[in-house]
Give the backbone structure.
Amino acid sequence: MSQGFETKSADATKNFGRHRQPTQVADIDSIQQSLVEHFSDIKDPRVERTKKHQLTDILVIAILAVIAGAQGWEDIENYGISKQQWLEEFLALPNGIPSDDTFRRVFEFINPEALNRCFLSWVETLVTKMGGEIIPIDGKTIRGSYDRNQGKSALHVISAWSSEQHLVLAQMKVEDKSF
């Protein structure tokens, strides 16, 4: 009856159920510089006389804040304030951390396709530097996102997930469960 089953040693079962540790990145400075460089290609939609903060500073702070869990403009500003000393190591920040209103106004005018292209390019660079792990793609239907009265179907989203880094790399809305 027990044929085909092996008894595991204590060492083999000791780490059962524990998460793998994320891959360590050898050169964090190059990743920070890469982030700044990838987003420096985005066209600044602001009028020259109203530019108190550099566009790359605004974009980089917002991206890092969202990765850290920020869910609104105030969260992004608070993230910047709490990490200002670290951010000053690789961002210019000539006038400190932008306000929540500045983040909102800038993102209202940024070309979303250009921002998405730069973000995906940066993520691709990260994945390459981290050893090219396999990225699972998963689709979800958001419960309660439909509106029968207006004839709108539920929201369908696909996500690319870095298992080793415990990080969502990209997320995209799709029309239906076709992906």
Remarks:
- Confidence is low (pLDDT under 50) at residues 1-26.
- The first strand starts at residue 137 and ends at 141.
